[in-house]
């Protein structure tokens, strides 16, 4: 059903055609249900339209991508990466400039467009809770850091990326419009108060399992994982209070052997109906500005772009400029 929906858009997307020399195109993403949805909404229709086979690979690994580019042996053509990484890698010469004569950026959310990347989808870090497992669910970041009021294990994203540091500062009373530059010492001091109660998740599927099993009945998770968890029949509560937005991006590694086909794949993937199909399947927001009107209103209202009352936009440019320095301090703190 998802493939059929996406293919309807592709039938009208006459600008997409594969270069004669390209028989395969390799797409790397993060695996799990999100990559399954990307395959159904984007890859399968692209193959049906162009005859180019889209080979799925992953999970995305920044060290591997960098090594490919430096060795001149690039085997990935389109890669789903985090938005701050895309900004940094573009500046560092690791990505091809995108061809906006092929990709129509006029229809895309400008927050997620650079010379080297366009948004894949955008998501929010929300406070997720298995309501079947606890007597009360945390509603705010301050609640999530309150082990007296909400005892037990809680889960947070393991890697150095937007989300956790911002949540710690918000929990400590920093106003949303004063988050940047990030006060890392203050954030780590706040995180120290719950460090022994944190179970780190390294991928979306793990965060979902931690909540489902109640090993960590609440935590900071991607909103789409709460959508997936609710679909299993578990009673969940999602708090959108000060939800923290970030985005994935689509990039083409420097030296991709199929860069021309990669641009056309990205053009399709970011067009309105394939973006709407992905949003419907994942619970993540589309980055095409025309997608929302193609979606069922009941589905559309559950997406991050409809949860703006107290929404906090993570600063991707700040993270791109400071990614390495933050990462060094983050992993040193985790190892203590």
From TrEMBL:
Transmembrane segments: none annotated. The keyword Signal applies. Residues 1-22 form the signal peptide. Keywords: Periplasm, Signal. It comes from the Bacteria. This is ABC transporter substrate-binding protein. It comes from Rhizobium pisi. The lineage of its organism: Bacteria, Pseudomonadati, Pseudomonadota, Alphaproteobacteria, Hyphomicrobiales.
């Amino acid at each position: 059903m998802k493939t059929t929906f996406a293919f309807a858009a592709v039938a009208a997307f006459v600008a997409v055609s594969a270069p004669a020399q390209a028989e395969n195109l390799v797409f790397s993403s993060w695996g799990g249900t999100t990559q399954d949805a990307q395959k159904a909404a984007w890859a399968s229709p692209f193959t049906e339209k162009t005859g180019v086979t889209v080979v799925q690979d992953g999970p995305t690994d920044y060290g591997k991508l960098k090594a490919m580019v430096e060795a001149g042996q690039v085997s990935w053509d389109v890669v789903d990466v985090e938005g701050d990484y895309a900004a940094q890698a573009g500046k560092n010469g690791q990505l091809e400039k995108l061809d906006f004569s092929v990709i129509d950026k006029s229809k895309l959310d400008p927050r997620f467009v650079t010379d080297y990347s366009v948004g894949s989808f955008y998501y929010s870090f929300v406070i997720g809770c298995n309501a079947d497992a606890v007597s009360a669910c945390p509603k705010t970041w301050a609640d999530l850091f309150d082990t007296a009021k909400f005892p037990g294990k809680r889960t947070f994203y393991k890697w150095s990326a937007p989300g956790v540091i911002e949540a710690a500062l918000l929990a400590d009373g920093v106003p949303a419009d004063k988050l940047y530059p990030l006060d890392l010492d203050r954030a780590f001091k706040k995180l120290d108060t719950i460090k022994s109660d944190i179970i780190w998740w390294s991928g979306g599927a793990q965060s979902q399992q931690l909540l489902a099993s109640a090993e960590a009945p609440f935590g900071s998770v991607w909103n789409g994982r709460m959508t997936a968890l609710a679909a299993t029949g578990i009673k969940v509560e999602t708090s959108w209070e000060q939800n923290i937005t970030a985005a994935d991006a689509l990039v083409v590694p420097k030296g991709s052997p199929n860069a021309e086909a990669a641009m056309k794949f990205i053009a399709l993937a970011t067009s309105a109906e394939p973006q709407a199909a992905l949003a419907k399947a994942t619970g993540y927001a589309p980055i095409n500005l025309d997608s929302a009107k193609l979606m069922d209103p009941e589905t559309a209202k559950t997406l991050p772009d409809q949860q703006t009352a107290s929404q906090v936009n993570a600063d991707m440019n700040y993270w791109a400029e400071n990614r390495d320095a933050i990462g060094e301090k983050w992993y040193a703190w985790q190892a203590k």
